[in-house]
From TrEMBL:
Record has Magnesium as a keyword: yes
Enzyme class (EC, first level): hydrolase
Lineage: Bacteria, Pseudomonadati, Pseudomonadota, Alphaproteobacteria, Rhodobacterales
Pfam family, one: Inositol_P
Family: Belongs to the inositol monophosphatase superfamily.
Gene Ontology molecular-function annotations: inositol monophosphate 1-phosphatase activity; metal ion binding
InterPro entries from the UniProt entry: Inositol_monophosphatase-like
Residues engaged in binding Mg(2+): 3, 5-6, 129
Name the record gives this protein: Inositol-1-monophosphatase
Top-level taxon in the UniProt lineage: Bacteria
Cofactor(s) the protein requires to work: Mg(2+)
A GO biological process held by the record: inositol metabolic process
Annotated organism of origin: Ruegeria atlantica
Keywords: Hydrolase, Magnesium, Metal-binding
Keyword NAD attributed: no
Length: 180
């Protein structure tokens, strides 16, 4: 699966926050993920069971950083009710966290894997935007929701990913906000 430009709005408007994404899926599991950010020359790669790298160097998610000491990226689109993002932002602020939106879900997921962000949440993503990043986060020591990649390819779905220290809290915030 290939997304030639994730962050299309950024690309069209000259904002240098967009990526090229490739995910290889077999037997309902993402086996390989690549996210390339050409504007800064960064390539994030993971192969199932082999760890994750940034420009060829091993990388890990942030460790032992509490929610109040970091930033969580939030994605949203016209596929969901815009009002559903407000309680997520409010819950993060109430816990002392910062929130971030850069309009490229794949790039935000890559930043979680690199330890730059604590997590990423979006109520509905397309598979080509998230499968590679989810694998990269998992291989960098982060947590993601278990998903059937074939189901994501067919229907899309929610994406919740984060460091071990914040994942459960992010999941609870999302489930409360999205009434799940």
């Amino acid at each position: 699966m290939i997304d030639p430009i994730d962050g299309t709005t950024n690309f069209v408007n000259g904002i240098p926050a967009w990526t090229i994404v490739i995910a290889g899926v077999s037997e309902s599991q993402t086996q390989v993920g690549v996210i390339f950010e050409p504007n800064v020359g960064e390539t994030y790669v993971a192969v199932g069971g082999e760890g994750a790298t940034l420009n060829g160097h091993a990388m890990q998610v942030a460790s032992s950083v509490e929610l109040a000491s970091g930033t969580v990226s939030i994605g949203y689109s016209n596929r969901v009710e815009a009002s559903n993002v407000v309680p997520v932002i409010a819950a993060l602020i109430e816990r002392g966290a910062l929130y971030h939106r850069n309009a490229s879900g794949a790039l935000s997921l890559a930043y979680v894997a690199a330890g730059r962000l604590l997590g990423y949440i979006e109520e509905h993503m397309n598979a080509w935007d998230c499968l590679a990043g989810q694998l990269i986060i998992a291989e960098a020591g982060g947590e993601i929701e278990d998903q059937d990649a074939d189901g994501m390819i067919r229907d899309g779905g929610r994406a919740i990913a984060g460091t071990p220290a914040v994942f459960d809290t992010l999941k609870m915030i999302c489930e409360d906000a999205w009434n799940e």
